[in-house]
Amino acid sequence: MKTTGRRRIGAAAGALALAASMAQAQTAPTTQTTPAAVIAGFERTELPGGEHMGLAQIAYLVEFAPGWRAGPALYGAATGHRGGLFTWGAEAQKLWRFGERWQAVGGLYVGGGGGGNAPVGGGLMLRPHADLLYGFDGWALGVSASQVRFPNGDIRSSQLGLVLSVDERFEHGTPGLAWRGSDASWLRVDRLVLGGGRYAEQAPGADSLGIISLRAEHDLGPVWIATAEAGAAVQGDGDGYAEFGAGLAALWPTPLPGLRVGGRAMLGLGGGGAVPTGGGIIGKAALLARWQVAGPWSLELEGGRVHAFSGGDLDSNYAMLSLGRSFGAPDGGAPAVETEFALAAQSYDAQRRDGSRRRLETTGLKISRAIDERWYVTGQAYGAVTGGAGAYSVGLVGLGARWPVSPGWRVGAEALAGAAGGGGVDSQGGAIVQPKVWVGTDFGRHGRLQLGAGYIRSLRGDLSAPLVELSWGVALGRP
């Protein structure tokens, strides 16, 4: 089973490599616009014993060749009793258009993860599907026939679902050259906010939970802000808890210089780590104060309530303190900044809570953004695909540096920290660190292959192991 898992990881990496090699043909002296789509879906899957679980999907797909598109995707439990089941990975699709309105889609998703005590085995998830959609102006709605399969687990379900596709455009250019696009894409990030805080209790009468979160913001105007966020447990008995969501915020100026106050609301999915979120749908409502302390940097204080809507007992007050960094609107005269999107696979021996130590493999998605020619910041997420730890997931943020050693070759190092948990892995509390060194080479204009070695360590649990990583990335210029 271990060999089979590695082959499947290799197949997923190969699929992304094919997409990247096709993207190499797209050369842009300044800025290029590529058709893209935001895909959302929902379907009711069947688990062993006749149990049903609602599965929600979100994906961002870019057209790398006529009729072919690929990109990252996330699935999560939304109804039933398996809140906390998440998988993330890569989706590839072939699109056919009939007449002016009809679209047919065939696709395959490959990802890793689990949670919610679902029988996912090692965590590898496959989802082949065929969709039929009717198009409107800028969006399309239709039905999807799919099979959700965990090959080394017990879930194998065929079903119909709903799918929504919203047209997008992905703008990219050549790093270092002047940015010429408008970057009206929803991928534009005007601000990143990294915070830490505490849920007062996981459930009525239960212990509190330490949380870290990363929020991306997209300004809709002088007051309103669209948000997308991810969070995870790093302290308490909820290691393995994760949440993902989107929402709206509103901030108004005050007489005090640099201070704005308002509120925000979020709706999303959460669970894992024995946190009682029921089917998985959660929401937040909070008051917010933001103080612009120096240039693009801000401090933020937030207090509100988090609630589980689909049958769970999570209903808690919470407070967070955050640091934000604004990027401002894209400047048509500023150079495009190198941004790399990558699919990665990691392997290491992980200590389990039962005292054993077993090999597991994870697949993950990485995004890295250059600060200058040497330094970059990165965010990474991984989910288990083999090793009997299907609920195990990892989220990391950190700083990296790189040095060229010969034409087309470079070496680098990363210092990462974040949260990990689930799947019986002994990461008590959830907080982890992961230093890593790597060597990489270029394949054409956009593609990059990277081999890394590092160490993952839990700050409170017994998880402590050397790791190896293989990743394939696509590097593009972004504002």
Principal-axes shape call = globular
**Mean of pLDDT:** 89
Largest sheet descriptor: 8 strands, antiparallel, barrel
- The CATH level-2 architecture of the largest domain is identified as Beta Barrel
The oligomeric status of these chains comes to: single chain
Give the strand tally: 24
What is the CATH class of the largest domain? Mainly Beta
- Count the domains: 3
Q: Looking across the biggest beta sheet, what order are the strands in?
A: 1-2-3-4-5-6-7-8
- Parts with pLDDT < 50 across at least 5 consecutive residues: 1-28
Question: Which structural class do you get from the secondary structure elements?
Answer: mainly beta
User: Helical segment tally?
Assistant: 1
Terminal CA distance: 44 Å
Secondary-structure element string: HEEEEEEEEEEEEEEEEEEEEEEEE
CATH topology of the largest domain: Porin
The amount of beta strand, in percent, is over 45%
Approximate helicity band: under 10%
What integer value in Å does the Rg equal?
Answer: 21 Å
Keywords: Signal
